[in-house]
From TrEMBL:
Species of origin: Peribacillus butanolivorans
Keywords: Hydrolase
UniProt GO MF annotations: hydrolase activity
Family matches, as SUPFAM superfamilies: alpha/beta-Hydrolases
Species classification: Bacteria, Bacillati, Bacillota, Bacilli, Bacillales
InterPro entries named in the record: AB_hydrolase_1, AB_hydrolase_fold, AB_hydrolase_sf
Domain AB hydrolase-1: 22-132, 195-252
Protein name: Alpha/beta hydrolase
Length: 268
């Protein structure tokens, strides 16, 4: 466990293990690096494996500024630069996918070996010409209200919706603890930003090898989102995890780890 300063008064928490090509796991909105604990033992056998808490998430500094996908991508770039990482593999889950795409948009692909996208749309918003989006304006307003007035109960339901099967009491407890670490004001700010970013126009510009991992039983992000990404990202392949919802790296961790590893080895 360690911290690195990416901006004055902003420190990112990370856990690192192993040697070799660096692979960085980037979590979703409100989540943390703790959700990737089943990846660390496996990938650290072959790779320099890094689990990262984004700004204001998990154990990283909670700040009331810079809570946008664009700034999170800048933080990621600063982290990679300060650590001297080369030829990195970026794994982005949910909002983490937006951070990966924004990183590529801002800083290019020169230092990126490959990317893995886990259960995310080109945009979460249901735009007039994008009917597979997850949220319309009414849903977003409702979520923003719940975060401000009824957060714990709302997030209990939100966490349940991420999994195909019922969570154990132990898992439900630690997950709720993680997603309520940040102040509600920050939670609202990043929810709004990550819900309206739109990478549809950028997808065809991505040339780095891309693996798309989607759960068959997703309750919010449809498998159609993965099909859409595969059609629009030139060098991509889609894998469906038949016994997962939003978190195949937890629900089918063994298969997920082997699938991602095989993809990386194929690209080498």
């Amino acid at each position: 466990m360690a911290f690195i300063e990416v901006e004055k008064d902003v420190q990112l928490y990370y856990e690192e293990k192993g040697q070799g090509r660096p692979i960085i796991f980037i979590h979703g909105v409100w989540m943390s690096s703790r959700f990737f604990t089943r990846q660390l033992p496996y990938f650290s056998e072959k790779y320099r494996t890094i689990l990262l808490d984004l700004r204001s998430h998990g154990q990283s500094t909670h700040v009331h500024n810079g809570n946008t996908v664009s700034v999170y991508a800048k933080d990621l770039h600063a982290f990679i630069d300060k650590q001297g990482l080369k030829d990195v593999i970026l794994v982005g889950w949910s909002m983490g996918a937006f951070v990966v795409w924004d990183y590529l948009k801002q800083f290019g692909e020169d230092n990126v070996h490959s990317i893995v996208i886990v259960d995310e749309l080109a945009s979460d918003f249901k735009w007039p010409d994008f009917d597979i989006g997850a949220f319309d304006i009414d849903t977003l307003i409702a979520f923003m209200t719940e975060i401000q007035t009824n957060r714990s109960l709302f997030l209990q339901g939100f966490l349940t919706s991420m999994f195909k099967d019922e969570l154990s009491a132990r898992d439900a407890n630690w997950m709720l603890e993680e997603v309520t670490k940040m102040p509600a004001s920050i939670a609202s700010a990043i929810l709004f930003d990550q819900s309206i970013v739109d990478y549809r126009a950028f997808l065809p510009e991505i040339t780095v090898p891309t693996l798309l991992c989607f759960g068959r039983h997703e309750k919010v992000i449809p498998v159609a989102a993965g099909v859409h990404l595969e059609k629009n990202i030139p060098n991509s392949e889609l894998v469906i995890f038949e016994d997962s919802c939003h978190c195949p790296f937890i629900e089918e961790s063994g298969l997920f780890n082997k699938t991602v590893d095989a993809f990386i080895q194929k690209v080498i």
